[in-house]
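Weekly modeling sync, notes
Attendees: AB, CL, MP (scribe)

Item 1: holo prediction request
CL wants a bound-state model with adenosine-5'-triphosphate before deciding which constructs to order. AB pointed out that an apo prediction alone won't tell us much about the pocket. Agreed to run with the ligand included and paste results into these notes for async review.

Input as submitted:
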Amino acid sequence: MNREPILKARGLVKRYGRVTALDDCDFDLMPGEILAVIGDNGAGKSSLIKALSGAIAIDEGEITLDGQPVSFASPLAARDAGIETVYQTLALSPALSIVENMFMGREWRRPGLAGRWFRALDRDRMRAFARDKLSELGLMTIQNIDQPVETLSGGQRQGVAVARAAAFGSRVVILDEPTAALGVKESRRVLELILDVKSRGIPIILISHNMPHVFEVADRIHVHRLGRRLCVIDPREHSMSDAVAYMTGAKAPH
Ligand SMILES: Nc1ncnc2c1ncn2[C@@H]1O[C@H](COP(=O)(O)OP(=O)(O)OP(=O)(O)O)[C@@H](O)[C@H]1O
């Protein structure tokens, strides 16, 4: 098995004025794993995944994907490289429909004559695909996939964002608090979907404050503290209270 990280970062620094959100931060995502990232509020977890997914520019450091240095100018550039991210803010367009949100910027077109500049959107195929992906998530309580996202509940919106990432992430899927807005049943479906993405051989970065969820699905846990990676622990060898003690600084990892 190839033990080189798929996604790797060394010495990341991100400053917002006087605040240093990432302070010489390292990161490694191994092939096929679910890596949880945990840390206190303000520890810099979101900044880390934004740096990895092109949503913010880093001040210092290096990121490699499959061993090649990368510098994503935008989330779109990261997406083109196969890195799909669900941000806490979800990045959905409320006025657009569910299908339009799933395909935003990568619409499928009907086959056309070679060289023809305009090809019609293949709406039927996109709708069937969107319906499939949502039903995999158990989200077919949504009656109409042409309805605007702004008419959905918070949990349903989260489901659309997660389904989109799971459907299109070909190298890495990053989920920032994917179960935060969800009830017990919906959370369970998201956890199942995470395991399903893993079974397709795609590694996942899961940022979560929910320790039972983290310990249920993660292969390794990156503990983030004060803008950097404090340690990486194996959930089979550490308890939840250990993990919380490390991230709050109550206990030092050995
Ligand atoms: N756009 C911004 N402008 C100024 N400061 C920011 C900005 N984004 C983040 N920060 C600061 O950087 C630090 C790290 O924030 P970040 O959101 O990465 O932490 P986090 O671990 O994801 O926190 P949480 O668990 O609360 O989401 C915090 O002190 C935060 O206030």
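Recorded for review: The two ends are 28 Å apart (CA to CA).
Action items: CL to compare against the apo run; MP to circulate these notes.
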